[in-house]
């Protein structure tokens, strides 16, 4: 017995919506280096109002246990998209030295950090100045 047409169509639309929400961001489970070792998270310096154009530009790959109270040259207040691997957590701060506002990002793709609030008047796009990434 086959499922009703409306159920099949609804499932197809739901799957399409999930794939569009990730845009150009890699799936969290695909965060691995070429040698197969695990990557905790990836930050990207480009996002866009269109999700298909997010997670682009320069990349900063973070290994499990990466602790950066001061981001590398050119990365302070630059990240506008990020992806966190399964069973990992990325903690970010808005000021160098792990001070200011903080937020934890868990497993998933975050193509537009403009959509994540940082206080009353701000968001996390171009606002990450320190980070710690850990995996269990």
UniProtKB/TrEMBL annotation:
GO CC terms: zymogen granule membrane
Keywords of the record: Cytoplasmic vesicle, Disulfide bond, Exocytosis, Membrane, Signal
Pfam name, any one: Syncollin
Entries under InterPro entries matching the protein: Syncollin
Compartment(s) where it occurs, according to its Swiss-Prot or TrEMBL record: Zymogen granule lumen; Zymogen granule membrane
One GO BP annotation of this record: exocytosis
The keyword Transmembrane is assigned to this record: no
Membrane topology: Peripheral membrane protein
Range of residues in the leader sequence: 1-23
Major localization listed first in the record, in broad terms: other
Highest taxon, organism lineage: Eukaryota
UniProt function note: Functions in exocytosis in pancreatic acinar cells regulating the fusion of zymogen granules with each other. May have a pore-forming activity on membranes and regulate exocytosis in other exocrine tissues.
Protein known as: Syncollin
Organism, as annotated: Daubentonia madagascariensis (Aye-aye)
